[in-house]
Amino acid sequence: MWNGLFFQRTTLCDQGLRVQLGHAYNRSCPTKLAANTNFRVIHSNGIHHVAIDQCRCHGVDLYKQLLRIGWWPATPLDPKSAATFEVLRHFHTLNLQGKITGYSFYQALEYQTDNTGLDPPPVCPFPPLLGISCADHEYRIV
Ligand SMILES: [Zn+2]
User: Fold this and answer.
1) Å from CA of 125 to ligand 1 middle
2) Which three-class secondary structure state does DSSP give residue 39?
3) Helices 102-113 and 85-98, interaxial angle, to 10°?
4) Mean pLDDT in runs of 10 for the chain (142 residues)?
5) What is the pTM for the complete model shown?
6) Measuring CA to CA, how many Å separate 64 from each of 71, 82, 109?
7) Cα-to-centroid distance, 12 and ligand 1 (Å)
8) Which of 59, 67, 96, 126 is the most exposed place for a label (fewest CB within 10 A)?
9) 62: nearest Cα among 89, 34, 83
10) How far apart are CA 35 and CA 136, in angstroms?
């Protein structure tokens, strides 16, 4: 974001992005619950922070709502991070073809997010990133 003197680093959350789960794009939920205002999303273009609103209309668990929009939660219980299916497929391909490790892949995403090293993101919430990649086919049953 341009602050008048230079481009200042900002997050999608700071720019006001809120992701409403459980409803079609650009629809609000009458029973929404602000689930997390600093939710971390690992995507193929970097690591982002967004605010998410959980839908409570039908009593669907938060992790299932995340899976339905293509985000694999780090944990089914009160998730604070998720990886998109796209980044999991990307990692799976690189792992199979280039033998890249989960650690190296996540480190590359960290550099892609902030290459200065001044404000590194927290440790990867997916230590066994490869294990998640192996399990990502299971989202189809949700
Ligand atoms: Zn709702």
Assistant:
1) 28
2) strand
3) 130
4) 87 85 89 87 92 93 95 92 94 94 90 81 57 45 42
5) 0.79
6) 9, 12, 25
7) 22
8) 59
9) 34
10) 23
